[in-house]
Specification:
It contains eight helices and eight strands. The protein is α/β, with parallel strands linked by helices. A six-stranded mixed sheet has the order 2-8-7-4-6-5, with helices on both faces. A two-stranded parallel ribbon has the order 1-3. The protein is globular and about 55 Å long.
């Protein structure tokens, strides 16, 4: 199968899962097909699916990521010893672990084609990730608390693992508790990474964007927490601050030159 054939197969299989999708036509344009496939994956509940679907999905997602261009952590230049600042798509980074800014349900974003990091990571990792997260949360028996961390395989991403953490949601004035909870997210991810023997970890900008944590203060907390942890002897030797927006790149750049 080529990519077009794989994409059409996956769309048809997902449409056939639910009678409510009867009558939905597969668009002719490639980009519209990609949007439909991603949207169907985003709203799909975590349940069993055939091995054949997964085999074709995996081949499709791996090739899509390769087409975007995979960046290896060893190609990055550190800002200072063990600390990196990289602007790019975290789902294309080959390292030991990337951090996902999750919600308390921990099974991903269900809004079709949403641009949040949680949606992107689940979309390009594959539906196995949602299934694995659902099983993990069912075993836990309660929503994930803010400031802790979980780890899963990365499935079809170029990294090995995904560290999931729930950051604080800011609805009013920023409080000391909010800041402490955000710092806990970074510390929890790093401790878990060290427990699993990971050497390189890439952080997204946890709690900014959809969770409305001020970007500048969030970056200060992130750098402080990472600096404190990196003084310890652990397997974690490389920490990448991954940014998407130019604003965050400027903020982190100034902070890392300051420290």
């Amino acid at each position: 199968m080529n990519q077009s054939e794989r994409r059409n197969y996956l769309i048809r299989e997902l449409l056939n899962e639910d009678e409510r999708y009867e009558g939905i036509m597969i668009p002719a344009e490639e980009e519209e097909q990609k949007q439909l496939l991603r949207g169907l994956m985003n709203i799909r509940a975590p349940r069993h699916i055939s091995r054949e679907f997964l085999r074709i999905q995996d081949a499709y997602l791996i090739q899509e990521t390769e087409a975007k261009g995979i960046v290896d952590v060893d190609e990055l230049i550190p800002v200072r010893d063990g600390i990196y600042l990289w602007q790019g798509d975290i789902t294309t980074l080959r390292c030991d672990g990337i951090v996902n800014a999750a919600n308390s349900g921990m099974t991903g974003c269900y809004v079709p084609n949403h641009r949040c990091i949680d949606n992107c990571i689940h979309s390009f990792s594959g539906i196995q990730l949602r299934i694995a997260c659902a099983q993990m949360m069912q075993k836990q028996g309660y929503d994930e608390p803010v400031g802790q961390a979980k780890i899963t395989p990365a499935y079809n991403l170029p990294c090995k693992y995904i560290l999931h953490t729930v950051g604080p949601i800011i609805t009013g004035k920023l409080t000391a508790k909010d800041c402490n909870m955000l710092a806990s997210c970074y510390r929890s991810c790093l401790r878990l990474a060290a427990e699993k023997g990971l050497e390189s970890v890439a952080f997204c900008c946890i709690s900014t964007g959809e969770f409305h944590f001020p970007n500048d203060r969030a970056a200060e907390i992130a750098v402080e927490a990472v600096d404190e942890f990196m003084k310890k002897d652990s397997s974690v030797k490389k920490v990448i601050f991954n940014v998407f927006k130019e604003l965050d790149k400027e903020i982190y750049g100034k902070l890392l030159r300051k420290y």
